[in-house]
Amino acid sequence: MSDAERNAAQAMVAESLLETSPASLGKASFLLTRAFNGGNDDIDGYVYLLKLLIQHALALAERYPAQAQEYRAAAVPMTYNLAANTWAGWGPGNVGEVGEAHRRLGLEAARKNIELAAQVGFGPERRRNGYWVLGAQLLQASDAAGARQAFATSGELARAAGDEHAAPMAEGWVLVADILGGSDAAGALDALKARMQNLGGDAAIYAEQYDTALAALRDGA
To answer: Which of 12, 56, 101, 216 is most buried, judged by most C-beta within 10 A?
Structure first.
């Protein structure tokens, strides 16, 4: 166990048996993701326990109105992780064996992420990822049109946040949705990937994911 994990565990243990603070929920999610390697080692166990954490956070939000927004905020990254780690588009070896039940929960988690982020009042820099993962899950569900709309919204939020790397990334996912939807957008995607490689940094890293996702989602269709 790393020092960060040990400190997180110790902070949770210091609370009373019947207490779970919003901060401890976030730490528990962190420990869970590390313990299960994001679901790679045991996707069923990971999804099951993360689902329980999300349910607990939302139940506490109802039980303690004064802290409701804090509990909802704690659930935002949990729902994102559940959606992201049940997406086959990361490619073989980067995600667990994603089955139909995992896909269903992942799509539900993506939609809940957007709902919670809006309730909490997060700005565009926090909300763009929720729309990206919704688009990813919709691609997995063979809803290319819905995915395209979600990715476009993610791009709008990235531009509103002034993120010069995430905005073109979202444009690329729009093109991926077009390709999976039957459009001839391969040339446009290649041109965008070249532009992103020239930007460097995160943009160059993002540019490498499109082909992986296309291959993985086509194989899983």
So the answer is: 216
Q: For the purposes of burial, counting CB atoms within 10 Å of the CB of 92, is it exposed (0-12), middle (13-18) or buried (19 or more)?
A: exposed
- pLDDT at residue 1 in the model: 63
Question: Which residues, at least 6 apart from 33, have a Cβ–Cβ distance to it below 8 Å?
Answer: 46, 50, 81, 85
3-state secondary structure of 4: helix
Contacts of 51 (CB under 8 A, 6+ apart): 82, 105
Structure tokens, 179: 């390709």
- Spell out the residues 6+ positions from residue 66 whose beta carbon is closer than 8 angstroms to its own: none
pLDDT digits (tens, 9 = 90+) for 179-198: 999 999 999 999 999 999 98
Q: Tokens 């909490």 appear where?
A: 120
